Amino acid sequence: MQAMQFEQSVVSILKRDKRFDPHAYFFLKEALDFTLKRSAAQHAGQSPHVSGPELLAGFRDLALDQFGPMASTLMNEWGIRRCQHVGDMVFQLIEEQVFGKQDSDKPEDFSEIFDFQEALTSPFLPKKKSSGPLFRKPALHR
């Protein structure tokens, strides 16, 4: 797809629905390309259909790779706070005939496959140690 056609499709979507920042759609396209390449590498060069959960995993992984600890903040800025939001954008792009779909594809394929916010923040949180209390009470001497 030509970049100009994609851009025009995003403008058309934004006239109807302003929930998501335009950058979110461009990142989604990049995430689809990333996921297709990863899938092709796993399937001997063939580029099979990408399912909703596969696209969400690719979206998450690319966001973590590109934006690191800021991924969650940036997605919030762009209006993407749940897995379903990615699905909403996918189906808007399908309506614009930018993305294709199979008859079995449906918006519910993106229904909270994982906790979106946690997936973007947990890799950067300190690991909890389960070695007991941090401080021990001093022994009383008699």
Give your account of this protein's structure.
- With 142 residues, the protein is mainly alpha-helical.
- The chain has one domain.
- Helix content is 54%, strand content 0%.
- Helix 2 packs across helix 3.
- The chain is elongated, with a radius of gyration of 20 Å.
- The N and C termini lie far apart (82 Å).
- The mean pLDDT is 89.
List keywords for this structure.
142 residues, mainly alpha, elongated
Topology:
Layout: H1 3-16, H2 22-42, H3 52-67, H4 71-77, H5 83-95, H6 116-121
Helix pairs in contact: 2-3
Task: Write a brief caption for the model.
This protein is mostly helical and 142 residues long. The protein contains six helices and no strands. Helices cover 54% and strands 0% of the residues.
Total number of helices: 6
Structural class: mainly alpha
Low-confidence stretches: none
Helix content: 40-55%
Largest sheet: none
Apparent shape: elongated
Computed CA radius of gyration, to the nearest angstrom: 20 Å
Q: Total strand count, please? A: 0
Distance between the termini: 82 Å
Give, in order, the helices and strands.
Answer: HHHHHH
